Amino acid sequence: MFFKLPLLATAFLATLAAAAPTASPPAPGTTNLCCSTVGTNANPVISTLAALLGVSLTGILGNIGVGCTVLTVLGNTCSNTAVNCDSSQLGSGLINVGCVPITL
Prior knowledge:
The protein is of the alpha+beta class.
């Protein structure tokens, strides 16, 4: 009887672990964002904003997000472009670099 209780508890916990949903967390140093504009440094909106802020986008490869807000895990919707960006921010956080589109 004493041996059955630990065995049952272990089986129960294993079942819970197997049934629990798993979500892939973002890569370390990245943030899920909803951005009003996403593009490269050739995008006129992005290059104009960067120039107004005095931010150089020279040498930045890949997508850049502008006007972004953080997406939380639950309940957020994004009517613009959902992206995962590295944690690098320029121009007081108005410009995020290293962005990759994601599906919500």
